[in-house]
Amino acid sequence: MKTTIRTTVICIFSLFFIQTIFAQSKKFKADNVYYSRTDTKVLNLSNEVWKKILSKELYQVAREAATERAFTGSLYQNDIRGTYYCAVCGNGLFLSTAKFESACGWPSFYEPLRTKSVLYKKDSSHNMVRTEVLCGRCGSHLGHIFDDGPKPTGKRYCMNSISLDFEPLVAARKIGSF
Ligand code: FE
């Protein structure tokens, strides 16, 4: 009996927690007039504009190329089927089928959703030469790409969780997106 009560309480708290996260995400999207999952028009907005819209944490990663701490991102171990969108503008970036388990500590994919989903830029910061990956629509920083990924591409798109907005396939089906 005690176990049943405990399980019920845990379920109620979990549902409340998930609902709160979705509500926050929904509010952000409603406040962000540039967020769209269908509009592919390139956005050339200044950081002054984005600063008024994005949370401090997202702004630092997306617009100032900060990196979230390894193994701390909410999507690092996410293995649910679905689509990953740009958290800043809603541009489709990756499918869960291209996500693979990586020991690097960040969500990793072997290919983008479409060729134009992302852009690439040489990054010589921190005494390293790397290739930065940017959102193809809004130009926000997503992470970096490396040549040690699995087949078929051999690439590892090493992304910051906070830069990604994940939509589970089940939820998408409910609203008729699939
Ligand atoms: Fe974007």
Write a structural description.
This protein has 178 residues and is an alpha+beta fold. It contains 4 helices and 9 strands, in the order αααβββββββββα. The protein has helices at 2-31, 47-53, 56-64, 169-174; strands at 82-86, 92-95, 99-100, 108-109, 118-123, 130-135, 141-146, 156-159, 164-168. A 6-stranded antiparallel β-sheet has the order 3-4-8-7-6-5. A 3-stranded antiparallel β-sheet has the order 2-1-9. The N and C termini lie far apart (42 Å). Residues 10-18 have low confidence and may be disordered. The structure holds fe (iii) ion. The site of fe (iii) ion has 8 residues, from loops.
Quick recap:
This protein has helices spanning 2-31, 47-53, 56-64, 169-174; strands at residues 82-86, 92-95, 99-100, 108-109, 118-123, 130-135, 141-146, 156-159, 164-168. By secondary structure, the protein is of the alpha+beta class. The protein is globular, with a radius of gyration of 17 Å.
